[in-house]
Amino acid sequence: MTETSPGAHPRHELDEVIHAPVRFSIVATLAAADKAEFAFVRDTVEVSDSVLSRQVATLEKAGYVAVTKGYVGKRPRTWLALTPSGRTAFAAHCQALRAIAGDGAGGG
User: Fold this and answer.
1) Which CATH architecture has domain 15-95?
2) What pLDDT, on a 0 to 100 scale, did the predictor assign at position 5?
3) What is the pTM assigned to this prediction?
């Protein structure tokens, strides 16, 4: 084992889709629930509708977020939920962040 092994640093385990700050915040918010209304996520993450829509589209394309549309009474609603693969990817991403934070203090 050498310290210069390619791919040995935990940063290689970061998920590029989740890593963007807004997407990370969205996924973290959704990880705490089975599903959440679009407006709740928007307000929690503090972004506009259009920003949230674009970021959710990226997460949905990656298979990490499921979008469900429906009605509450006569009002249209959109719900967001992490898929099983989204939960797995988020857990792995967080583990890589913890490894970097814990192991990255020395050297350089």
Assistant:
1) Orthogonal Bundle (1.10)
2) 56
3) 0.85
